[in-house]
Amino acid sequence: MKLPRKAALSILTTAAACVCGCGYSMAPQHPTNVGTVYVPVWTTGKEVYRRGLEIRLSEAVAKRIQQITPYRIADKTHADTELSGTVELIPQKVLSFNPDTGLPRELEMTIVVNFVWKDLRSGKIIVKRNGLRSTGTYIPHEPFGEEFFQGSEDVINRLAERVVEAMEKDWEKG
């Protein structure tokens, strides 16, 4: 029996993709031996003088874990793992000045964190990252008059997203 040329080509292409790999995997994206995560309020480093930012970041990380991972947030006594971190730096720089007032027209803010995701059952560190950063801009004076609180909201949410992305399986290790 002879296969039609299109069918033979289709079978050959499928077999080649299976043998060579195509970058897709049916494996879970997150470690399956973890069910719960404890997220304490993160701390601030010696050079950080912004009050409450660490609380907002901890809340954003916990919400993001609940949104996009299979894990539940739990208290420390019932959690499999703990995700703790430190806000190390919050440098800001002026991007432009208002020529009429001399006040900053646009500011760039970066938040730099270190964090550790640790298995509380074994004591093993699952993920550790130093110097993870997120940057954004805000307009502190008229016409928008954003304060640091509003200006930092997008940066905090992007940083929480990056922290939770780091909780995914390492594709190199499988």
Features:
7 strands, 3 helices, single chain, 174 residues, alpha/beta
Question: Helices, strands, pairings?
Answer:
Elements: H1 5-20, E1 36-38, E2 43-44, H2 53-68, E3 72-73, E4 81-89, E5 92-97, E6 104-119, E7 125-138, H3 148-165
Parallel strand pairs: 1-3, 1-4, 2-4
Antiparallel strand pairs: 4-6, 5-6, 6-7
Helix pairs in contact: 2-3
A few lines on this structure:
The chain has 174 residues and is α/β, with parallel strands linked by helices. Helix content is 29%, strand content 30%. It has one domain (27-165): Double Stranded RNA Binding Domain (2-Layer Sandwich), CATH 3.30.160.150.
Explained architecture:
The chain is of the alpha/beta class. The chain has one domain (27-165): Double Stranded RNA Binding Domain (2-Layer Sandwich), CATH 3.30.160.150. It has helices spanning 5-20, 53-68, 148-165, and strands spanning 36-38, 43-44, 72-73, 81-89, 92-97, 104-119, 125-138. Strands 1, 2, 3, 4, 5, 6 and 7 form a seven-stranded mixed beta sheet that branches. Strand 6 (104-119) and strand 7 (125-138) form a beta hairpin. Helix 2 (53-68) crosses helix 3 (148-165). It starts with a helix and ends in a 9-residue tail after the last helix.
